[in-house]
Design a protein that fits this description.
The structure holds 2 protein chains of 2 kinds. Chain A is of the alpha/beta class. Chain A is built from 12 helices and 16 strands. Chain A is globular and about 70 Å long. Chain B is of the alpha/beta class. In chain B, the strands form 2 sheets. Chain B has an 8-stranded mixed beta sheet, sandwiched between helices. The chains are: A alpha/beta, B alpha/beta. The interface between A and B is large, with 42 and 43 residues.
C-alpha cells in the first residue's frame, strides 16, 4: 500500500522516478537539482533500481542521451536547473519535435547574470515555447504524484510530448516534509512498462529527425493539437491516479477559496503555500479573497482560468520570471486569455525574483494594492514587489 | 563478406561526385543491416533524409549538430537495457560536428567507454552551409570565412589532429581512411565494429564543390591527398603497433594543391612559395613520422 516518511523534496522525486522504472537516466550536476540524481545513483548502487545512469559531460549531453534512449524505445529521465536547462534548450525543442516522451524535472533556479543559486521561474519559463508540457508543483507530495503522472501523460499515444515537472529549487528540493510513498505494485498498475509506438529497430528501420522544408507547418500544427488534447489528458490521468492512490493531485488549475471572491491571487509553484495561508487570514478578517494555482502552464488553461475568476473584480497575477521588455509571462498569457471577454481587471506583480522572499505580508500588500486600484480605477501595467530601491 | 543490399538507397540528393555519399555507402556495406546509425546535422543529413524520402534502409536518427556522440550513447544504453547485445551503434558525422561543435560530446562518449563506432566524414570545412572554415580545414586553404586577399593566404592554422586526440582517450581503435581505398575503408569499419568499446575512424572525403574540382575527379583528388603524404592512412588498435598504408608512388604536394581552387591563390605569383614549402614540409614530416615510404 504505502509508507509515510519525512524526506527531502528531492528524495520524493527520486522515489517517484524509481517507481516509474526508467531504463536510462542521465545525470549532470547543477544546484539545486543534484540531490535528485544523487539519490537515484544511490538507489542504483544499492540495486533498488534497475536502471543505467549515464554520467555525462554536460547538460547538453544529458538531454541528448535521453533523446537517443527514448528514440530507441525505453523510458528515460533526467533533471536539471537554471543554466543547465538553458544549455539543454536546443535538445529539448528537438526532442519535443521528434515527439519523444521523456520526463525531466526542471528544478527552478534563476538565470545568470548576476549569478546566484536562488530560485525563481526564469529558467523553465524560458523553455515555454519548446513543446514541453510544463507542470508546476506546490509541495513534495504533489511533486511525487506529478512525476508518476508525467510519464503516463507523456507516453500516451494521443500526446507523445516531453513533460517537464517544475519545482522550486531549495524551497521544495531541500525541505523535509512528510510524503506518502506508494508500493511498487500500485505504481506498476498505474504505469505499465513503456510500449513505444515507434522506435529505432533494425528489424523495422525508420528515420527519425528528417529534413523537412514543406512540412514544418504541419508538424507544428500536430504538436499544437497534441497540447490541446493534453488538457483533457492531464485531468483524466489525475483522476485515474486518485482512483488508485486515493488522493487528488492534478488538473490544470487548482482553485482555493475563490467562492464569492473579489480579489483572486494567481501564481505557480511553492509560493501557493504562503498565498493560501494569507488567504485564510484575510478571509478570517472578512475579506473576500481567493487564490488560483496554475499547475499546467503548457498547455495553458485559458478557459479553465477564465471560468474560475470571471466573477471576481480583479485578479493579481504573481510572476516569478520576467520577459524583459514585456512583463510577467503568466500575466501576459492571462490577459490574452481574457481578451474579448467580460473579465476582471488584471494586475501584474513581479515577485520573488532571485529568491526574494515572498511572505504572507507580501501577499496581503498585493491584495491591498488591488483593492486600491479598484477604488481609483487605475491598474498599473506591472509592479515590482518589495523592490530595494536603495540599490538601484 | 560485404552486405549485398544497398543500405543507402539510390535517389538521394547528394551532389554529383560527392565523397560523403561514397563513404556512407561503403560504411553500410561493412556494417550490414544490424546497425543503428546516428548522424549529426550536415551534408549527409540534408541529402539523405528529406521528409518522406529517406534514403536510409537502416534505422537512423538525426538530432542536432553537436550531439551525435551523446545521442548514440543513449541509443547504446537503451539497446543494452532491452537485452540487445548484437546491434551495432555507428555515428556518421562531418568534421564540423566532430572536430568543432560536437567535440565535447565525443570526448564524453570516449571517456565513458561506450561501445560505439564514431566515423567522421572529413571534407575539411562546413560544406552544407557554404564552405566555411572548420578546425579540420588544411593550412593555407581558402574557405568563405578564410578567403585569400592581400592580407591573407587563407587558413593560417594547421589542421587539428583529431585521431591523436581520440587516441589520447585510451580508446580501443583509431583509424584514418579514404574513400579512394574502398577495401581498406570497409576492412577498418568491420574491424572497428568487431571491437567492444569506443572507436574513431576519420574518412577523408573530397568535396568537389567546396574544394573546387570537377566532379569526375573525386577519386583522383582523394588519391593525391594520400600519395603526397598530406593525408596519412593508418590504424592503431590498442596495445598493437600502428599499421600504415605505404605510398608507392610519392607525389609532390603541388600535384594535389594545383588540382583544387581552394589552393589556387598559392600559385598566382612567387609570393606564397614559402606557404607551399610549408605544406610540403607537413607531407615530409608525415612521411617520416608514419613511415609512409614503401
Amino acid at each position: 500500500m504505502s509508507k509515510k516518511a519525512v524526506i527531502e523534496g528531492s528524495m520524493a522525486v527520486a522515489e517517484a522516478v524509481k517507481a516509474c522504472r526508467p531504463k536510462v537516466i542521465s545525470a549532470y550536476p547543477i544546484s539545486p537539482q543534484t540531490h535528485i540524481v544523487e539519490d537515484l545513483a544511490k538507489m542504483i548502487a544499492d540495486k533498488e533500481l534497475d536502471s543505467t545512469m549515464v554520467r555525462v559531460d554536460s547538460e547538453f549531453s544529458a538531454a541528448s542521451v535521453i533523446c537517443g534512449a527514448s528514440a530507441t524505445g525505453v523510458r528515460a529521465y533526467t533533471a536539471s536547473s537554471s543554466q543547465g536547462l538553458l544549455l539543454m534548450t536546443e535538445v529539448l525543442f528537438n526532442t519535443a519535435g521528434m515527439r519523444l516522451p521523456i520526463v525531466i524535472t526542471g528544478v527552478n533556479r534563476t538565470i545568470s547574470a548576476p549569478i546566484t543559486i536562488q530560485p525563481d521561474h526564469q529558467d523553465t519559463m524560458t523553455l515555454r515555447d519548446a513543446g514541453l508540457i510544463q507542470l508546476y508543483v506546490e509541495n513534495s507530495q504533489e511533486a511525487y504524484a506529478t512525476h508518476i503522472q508525467a510519464f503516463k501523460i507523456a507516453e500516451d499515444r494521443e500526446i507523445l510530448l516531453p513533460v517537464m515537472v517544475c519545482m522550486d529549487g531549495w524551497i521544495l528540493t531541500h525541505s523535509f516534509e512528510p510524503v506518502e510513498i506508494y508500493d511498487q505494485e500500485l505504481v506498476d498498475k498505474f504505469l505499465p512498462e513503456y510500449d513505444p509506438l515507434y522506435c529505432l529497430d533494425p528489424e523495422k528501420p525508420i528515420t527519425y529527425g528528417s529534413y523537412a522544408d514543406n512540412e514544418v507547418m504541419e508538424f507544428r500544427y500536430m504538436m499544437q493539437e497534441a497540447m490541446e488534447r493534453a488538457k483533457d489528458k492531464i485531468q483524466d490521468v489525475a483522476l485515474e491516479y486518485k482512483e488508485l492512490f486515493g488522493e487528488y493531485y492534478g488538473g490544470l488549475i487548482e482553485e482555493y477559496r475563490t467562492e464569492g471572491a473579489d480579489v483572486i491571487v494567481v501564481a505557480m509553484g511553492s509560493v501557493l503555500g504562503t498565498i493560501k495561508d494569507a488567504v485564510d487570514e484575510m478571509r478570517e478578517n472578512g475579506q473576500k479573497v481567493g487564490a488560483i494555482k496554475v499547475r499546467s502552464y503548457r498547455p495553458f488553461p485559458a478557459e479553465e482560468l477564465y471560468n474560475a475568476v470571471k466573477d471576481a473584480s480583479i485578479i493579481a497575477v504573481l510572476d516569478k520570471s520576467l520577459s524583459i521588455g514585456q512583463g510577467g509571462p503568466l500575466a501576459t498569457d492571462t490577459k490574452a486569455a481574457f481578451y474579448n471577454k467580460k473579465a476582471p481587471k488584471v494586475a501584474s506583480f513581479m515577485a520573488g525574483l532571485g529568491g526574494r522572499e515572498v511572505t504572507k505580508e507580501t501577499i496581503k500588500n498585493i491584495v491591498y494594492k488591488c483593492k486600491k486600484a479598484l477604488e481609483l480605477n487605475i491598474v498599473a501595467d506591472m509592479e515590482f514587489v518589495d523592490l530595494r530601491r536603495e540599490i538601484i | 563478406m560485404v552486405e549485398n543490399m544497398e543500405l543507402l538507397a539510390p535517389g538521394h540528393r547528394a551532389c554529383p561526385g560527392c565523397g560523403t555519399a561514397i563513404a556512407t555507402r561503403l560504411i553500410l556495406k561493412a556494417t550490414g543491416k544490424d546497425v543503428i546509425v546516428v548522424t549529426s546535422t550536415g551534408c549527409l543529413e540534408t541529402f539523405t533524409s528529406p521528409y518522406g524520402q529517406s534514403a536510409w534502409e537502416v534505422p537512423w536518427i538525426h538530432s542536432l549538430f553537436e550531439n551525435g556522440a551523446a545521442v548514440a550513447s543513449g541509443v547504446k544504453e537503451a539497446l543494452k537495457a532491452k537485452g540487445n547485445n548484437h546491434t551495432k551503434v555507428v555515428v556518421i558525422s562531418g568534421d564540423g560536428g566532430s572536430f568543432d561543435i560536437g567535440f565535447g560530446a565525443i570526448s564524453g562518449m570516449f571517456e565513458r567507454g561506450h561501445d560505439i563506432t564514431y566515423i567522421c566524414y572529413d571534407n575539411e570545412a562546413y560544406m552544407n552551409t557554404g564552405v566555411q572554415r572548420s578546425s579540420s580545414t588544411p593550412y593555407a586553404a581558402t574557405t568563405t570565412t578564410t578567403p585569400a586577399g592581400v592580407a591573407s593566404y587563407g587558413k593560417l592554422e594547421p589542421k587539428k589532429d583529431m585521431p591523436s586526440i581520440a587516441l589520447a582517450h585510451g580508446i580501443q581503435y583509431v583509424a584514418t581512411a579514404s574513400i579512394c581505398y574502398p577495401q581498406d575503408l570497409i576492412r577498418k569499419v568491420k574491424k572497428a565494429i568487431s571491437i567492444n568499446g569506443p572507436k574513431y575512424i576519420q574518412v577523408h572525403v573530397p568535396c568537389c564543390i567546396g574544394w573546387g574540382f570537377d566532379p569526375s575527379e573525386t577519386i583522383e583528388v582523394g588519391r593525391l591527398a594520400v600519395e603526397t603524404g598530406l593525408v596519412p592512412i593508418y590504424s592503431i588498435e590498442k596495445g598493437k603497433p600502428m599499421e600504415v598504408r605505404k605510398v608507392s608512388d610519392r607525389k609532390p604536394v603541388e600535384a594535389y594543391l594545383k588540382k583544387q581552387n581552394r589552393f589556387k591563390h598559392l600559385f598566382k605569383g612567387e609570393e606564397y612559395k614559402e606557404v607551399v614549402a610549408q605544406l610540403q614540409k607537413i607531407c615530409d614530416d608525415n612521411f617520416e613520422y608514419f613511415g609512409l615510404a614503401k
